[in-house]
Amino acid sequence: MQKICVVGLGYIGLPTAAVFARAGFDIVGVDVNKQVVERLNKGEVIIEEVGLPEVVKEVVAAGKLRASVAPEAADVFIIAVPTPIHEDCTANVEYVKSATKAVIPHLKEGNIIIVESTIPPRTMDDIVAPLIREAGFDPEKDVHIAHCPERVLPGRILIELVENTRIVGGLTPEATKKAADVYRQVVTGEVLETEAVTAEMSKLMENTFRDVNIALANELAKISARLGVDAHKVIELANRHPRVNLHHPGPGVGGHCLAVDPYFIVEKAPQEALMIQLSRDINNSMPDFVIEQIIKLTAELKEPKIALCGLTYKGNIDDVRESPAIEIVQKVLANPRFDVRIHDPHIRAEQVPFELVSFEEAVQGANLAVILTDHNEFKALNKQTLLAQMETPVVFDTKNCTGLEQEESLTVHRIGDLTGLQAISISKPINK
Predict the structure, then answer these.
(1) Stretch 94-113: mean pLDDT, rounded?
(2) Which residue blocks in 228-273 are alpha helix, DSSP H?
(3) How confident is the model at residue 428 (pLDDT cuts 50, 70, 90)?
(4) C-alpha distances in angstroms, 45 versus 155, 235, 239, 345?
(5) Where are the domains of the chain?
(6) Cβ distance 15 to 49 under 8 Å?
(7) What CA–CA distance (Å, rounded) separates 9 from 52?
(8) Any residues with CB less than 8 A from the CB of 312 and at least 6 apart, and which?
(9) Domain 3-196 identical in fold to domain 205-432
(10) For this structure, is 89 an active site residue?
(11) How big, in percent rounded to 5, are the helix, strand and coil portions of the chain?
(12) Topology of domain 205-432, CATH
């Protein structure tokens, strides 16, 4: 069985290492974070993902997975490091460069290098291959380099790493086949072979497709607010057409993929990627749209008490990367008129730069509860709890997830249904 060195033990690298270890491979996981390495070698994880703690504990105890702060010799190197964006929205591929340079001293002929990190088109050709060449290896003969982008859903990563179709694009046909064969030993879905640049672009377009369609729904929400229309009813009816599947609006787009990947295409073809850029602009505007509604709702209150519920970019995970909820919270906190309490049941205090409280503390005496993430805890919100604890029971559900209904004692607004939105008046009947 081959030995694999996985560089980067984050949301993708660690589950990838665990899946290969569970299949019997000898895995060394590498991370610059000493806490991650120390915890992993004890069989512990610091990220939240369904089933991951149990698998990691099992494979570490079996001696199939261990962690280190530096790479070591292996048959296969998998690079799964972050690729964030700079302030100008261009790709930061420095982590990919650093990871490639770190494995080079341990390379030998016949090795396979796979980059799973999401990268701009031609990164394998223009950045990774030249680094290998500069080190004295021929990237088309001596070693085999390929791109195999991850395409998993947080909360289902361990399942989808195995069951989803994988796309593998090599610098050469031989590199493609060898890298694909590595995945075929653990993947039950199809493993499709192509060239590197096509694999790079395929991953980016998967997420761009979703970002563009979310932007359409978000634009519909804005138009509906202007015209006094319930966008959710519009979507429900439009989707009865056999060839229409509109998304639902929300407070913005987050996560490393959808909020970042489209920029990698824009960077390479700015004159052509006009719709992609506009979609990014629309989705990036949604936090301010949410704040506008919060201001309208609390306009009549001198010092409104606001409960902001949810910080992650999607429900039931602990990932706050590019989360629009974080931007909303920061901007609401910056308004001195607001008395703000923040709650997220999936977030640890050290993950965010502001104080977190329990849900009960957040809504106690609140004038407005804003739902920013579709956690199960918020989907199951109890109306009676809100009526008993809030000063004015008003909910602004930006994720359309609570199931709470508008009634005489409880006011509910949704981001796509702002018909009848009016400022909260403290003279309203208070339900205690």
Answers:
(1) 97
(2) 231-238, 261-268
(3) low
(4) 15, 40, 41, 18
(5) 3-196, 205-432
(6) yes
(7) 12
(8) 254, 318, 319, 320, 323, 325, 344, 346, 347, 373, 375
(9) yes
(10) no
(11) 40, 15, 45
(12) Rossmann fold (3.40.50)
Where does residue 159 rank: exposed (0-12), middle (13-18), buried (19+ CB within 10 A)? middle
Identified catalytic residue from 64, 178, 203, 399: 203
User: Letter for the amino acid at 265?
Assistant: I
- Angle at alpha carbon of residue 385, lines to 323 and 287, rounded to 5°: 20
Catalytic residue among 5, 148, 257, 401: 257
Q: What is the pTM of this model?
A: 0.91
Which backbone phi and psi does 9 adopt, to 5 degrees? -115, 50
Residues 6+ apart with CB under 8 A from 236: none
Q: Give the 3-state secondary structure of residue 413.
A: strand
Q: Are 140 and 106 in contact (CB under 8 A)?
A: no
Does the domain spanning 3-196 belong to CATH 3.40.50.720? yes
Please indicate whether residue 268 is annotated as part of the active site.
Answer: no
Amino acid of residue 232: H
- List pLDDT tens digits, range 236-281: 999 999 999 999 999 999 988 899 999 999 999 999 999 999 999 9
